[in-house]
Each structure stands twice: as structure tokens, then as C-alpha cells.
Specification:
49% of the residues lie in helices and 0% in strands. It is built from 5 helices and no strands. The longest helix is centred in the N-terminal third of the chain and has 23 residues. The protein is rod-shaped, with a radius of gyration of 28 Å.
């Protein structure tokens, strides 16, 4: 028995009414304590699942929400760590609007050879009084 099991066993025993009706080694109490400890541990593990970068149980759901794998990654076999990394890049990463940031994002998302073409606005009406 783990410490958590023992704690739940003690908790359940303190909730019982006093008297000789309950044996110290009652299997019902031990079974309930094990179930409660298991639910407690599962709740703790779900707290980790909140972060897609660490998700194991919910990774398929996160990928569906993020529309992953995309067409670039659809035919590529990925490890769990790679899947978590792509989710992290899609959901958690913050950065500036600059070329280096977007190149890094594209690399993480599976587009390492992508190029970025910057648009330079040419205001052909500048100084002509046309368009404002």
C-alpha cells in the first residue's frame, strides 16, 4: 500500500461511526481507499495533461483541435516527443512578428526548408494626392 492509500484508509475509518461494527481490516474500507487513491493520482496526472507539450492521454484530442497532423506531417511517422513539440509550437509559443520567429516556427512545425518572402509595400500614390 502506498502512503496515499494509507491516508485514504485512515480518512475513511475516521468517517465511520464508532463501535464494534467495523473491523480494523475491513476489505470494503481498503477497497474504497484504493479507488479513492487511484482517482486522486489520476486527477494529479490530468493536471499535467493541461499542457499540450506534456500531454499523453489527451494528445489525440489536442491534435484534432489544432488540425494536426497537417498535410506536411500527415505521412511522416512521429514520436510522442515530436508530436508534443509540434503541439507546443502550435499552442504555447509566443514571439514577435519577425522573420527569425516565423522560420523557427516553420522548422518546428515540419517545414525546415521553407522560405519567407517579405512583402514591401510600394505606395505608388505617395505624394500624388490620390488615395488620401
Amino acid at each position: 500500500m502506498s502512503q496515499l492509500d494509507d491516508e485514504y484508509t485512515q480518512l475513511l475509518r475516521t468517517l465511520l461511526p464508532p463501535g464494534p461494527a467495523w473491523d480494523e481490516k475491513d476489505l470494503l474500507i481498503k477497497g474504497l481507499a484504493l479507488s479513492l487513491a487511484h482517482a486522486h493520482q489520476h486527477a494529479d496526472s490530468l493536471m499535467i495533461e493541461i499542457n499540450p507539450a506534456q500531454s499523453v492521454e489527451l494528445i489525440n484530442r489536442y491534435e484534432k483541435l489544432c488540425e494536426l497532423p497537417d498535410k506536411c506531417l500527415a505521412n511522416k511517422a512521429q514520436t510522442l516527443e515530436e508530436r508534443q513539440q509540434v503541439l507546443d509550437a502550435k499552442v504555447n509559443i509566443v514571439g514577435g512578428i519577425n522573420e527569425a520567429f516565423f522560420k523557427k516556427q516553420l522548422e518546428i512545425l515540419g517545414y525546415p526548408t521553407a522560405t519567407i518572402e517579405q512583402f514591401h509595400h510600394l505606395d505608388r500614390y505617395a505624394g500624388s494626392g490620390v488615395g488620401g
